[in-house]
Write a structure and sequence with these properties.
The protein is built from eleven helices and twelve strands. It is α/β, with parallel strands linked by helices. α6 links the parallel β7 and β8. The chain is globular, with a radius of gyration of 21 Å. The chain has helices at residues 50-57, 80-87, 107-117, 128-137, 154-166, 184-201, 212-218, 236-241, 246-253, 260-265, 296-300, and strands at 5-19, 22-35, 39-43, 65-70, 73-74, 90-93, 172-176, 204-208, 221-226, 229-235, 306-307, 313-314. An eight-stranded mixed β-sheet has the order 6-7-8-3-9-10-12-11, sandwiched between helices. It has a four-stranded antiparallel β-sheet with strand order 2-1-4-5. InterPro entries: AAA+_ATPase, ABC_transp_ATP-bind, ABC_transporter-like_ATP-bd, ABC_transporter-like_CS, Oligopep_ABC_C, P-loop_NTPase. Keywords: ATP-binding, Nucleotide-binding, Transport.
Amino acid sequence: MSDKAMLEVKNLTKHFKAGRGQVVHAVDNVSFTLEKGKTLGLVGESGCGKSSCARTIIRIYDPTDGQILLDGQDITHMKQRELKPYRRKMQMIFQDPYASLNARMTVRDIIAEPLLAHGIVKKKDQANEYVYPMLERVGLTKEHANRYAHEFSGGQRQRVGIARALVLQPELVICDEPISALDVSIQAQVINLLKDFQEEKGLSYLFIAHDLSMVRYVSDDVGVMYLGQLVEVCEADEIYRNPLHPYTRGLLGSIPIANPRLAREKEKSSIEGDIPSPIDPPSGCRFHTRCPYAKPICSEQAPQLKDVGGGHMTACHLY
């Protein structure tokens, strides 16, 4: 593992039992590397496995197979007690800022909880010296500390979630669609806040989102997932300038353009059909049932994610 790597995921697999002997293939053989101080954007349709992948990496879910290396340390099969010191290094910002906050706890107690859990402070009162400055950093005030989650707007609740994740000063933060439930103006504020923390603390982000334009703005590299598998990975600018996988082209073709003239000139590209069930994924390339360029080999043999030049990785029989 490179000294520059904050996170390395090797052939990560997560399956869920669905009853009657069925299995949901949520994540299958996903591999990537996230360097220290960098951001890897993870994109794809709803249900493609982005969140399941993130929750498996942070060990909310136990992996079915594969390997997770955090700053060189294998945490794949660690028990919860063994994981505790590594949980300080990795934190998560959840998609729903309301559901992820305890409605019965004040903001002060929510942010103080990880400090108490990891023994950084012994009493709640001692946590104030950490809680109040963190509230200020995320754009809230000391007066907000005694309020409850339902008293805040969506943007303010997400700031509380960010404060809770960052108060431990982690090295890796997994952002699971942290802006999808927010207004556009609030999205920009939250993204700029995360970028400021990254510049100051050298944080590494795994950033999951639907908004491809926002992913381009925040990410150094981008990975595209389809039905539990990575189909393309490369630098952010490269994947927008030169998308190779037909699925990636379809995703980028769906981005709306405000300028009518540019919208007319834009290459029309869309993805036909519905995403197959992860309980019974197609054989071979999982995208072949919706791909306009599918060949016989696509339904027979699964393509491997390989470098087609300049670090541009794609899993497609066209290359």
